[in-house]
Amino acid sequence: MRKRVAHIKDIMEKLYSRYNHRRIIKPDPLQFIYQYSNRADMEIVGFLGACLAYGRVQQIQKSLSCLLGYMGDSPFQFVHNFDTDKRKKLGNFKHRFTLGSDISDLLGLLQNVLWEFGSIEKFFIQGYDPSDKNIIHALSKFCDSLLDMYASRHKGHASRGLKYLLASPSGGSACKRLNLFLRWMVRDDDVDTGLWKSVDKAKLIVPIDVHMGRLCRILGFFDQKTISLKAAEKITDCFAEIEPADPVKYDFALSRIGILKNCTGKIRDICEDCELFDYCLRKERLAD
């Protein structure tokens, strides 16, 4: 495996150089962050954008545009001053099975975070230990602390919808959406914002969903059919062999392959035009 991963480094760098540019981030929900220049607004938008990053791309864009429309010029101020009237304003919001009430509950928690800590980053690092192997423990503390906060303030358990938005690694979730948020905040290049300075990018976990999982299986990084936290860790370890200080570096570029090349995991005529074709294990299996 190590020999194969080393051989893939060159193509990963070529993909990074070709695709890792802000001018082609659409339709990634990351695009909404750059509609704002204030760091506090960008952090809030990034968190909400990541939380709603599930389902069809067009629906994600529509839902985020709608939600941010409700929030006005400053999402940070909207959250900081969140009240009953604002909760009512979100009453008709819906993104797949995320309801306006779920978003309102989430914004209520974020309001508490902003009041007490000033930013999501300062709250997150309460559970962050630089000596940990990766970010998983800190992310678990982050999610679990927010859900505990909700339970203590509302004298009951959080709704299923809120729990979905704050899926924790402690429950075995690969946490694709929140790992995506961390990538956006921690890494600093032409695509990722680098807003957070307190977390080491070497500790990040690759955001894994069905599409990224398919690409990583094709590359031979793992052979599981299900996406899990263990799978995300294994894939991250493979990328860490290529780029130890920045294992999530190639995430955006690879996701462009999945989107622009419409990779299905099956060999088709158009596959020969794909930058990964020469490295694709599925092609090798057909040749055997």
List the helices and strands and how they pair.
Elements: H1 2-19, H2 39-51, H3 57-71, H4 75-80, H5 84-89, E1 94-95, E2 98-99, H6 100-117, H7 120-124, H8 136-154, H9 160-165, H10 176-186, H11 210-218, H12 229-242, H13 251-260, H14 281-287
Antiparallel strand pairs: 1-2
Helix pairs in contact: 1-12, 1-13, 2-10
Briefly summarize what is shown.
This protein has about 290 residues and is mainly α. Helices cover about 55% and strands about 0% of the residues. The C terminus is likely disordered.
Describe the structure.
This protein has helices at 2-19, 39-51, 57-71, 75-80, 84-89, 100-117, 120-124, 136-154, 160-165, 176-186, 210-218, 229-242, 251-260, 281-287, and strands at 94-95, 98-99. It is an all-alpha fold and 288 residues long. The chain has one domain. Strands 1-2 form a two-stranded antiparallel ribbon. A hairpin with a 2-residue loop joins strand 1 (94-95) and strand 2 (98-99). The longest helix has 19 residues, at 136-154. The protein is globular and about 55 Å long. The relative contact order is 0.12.
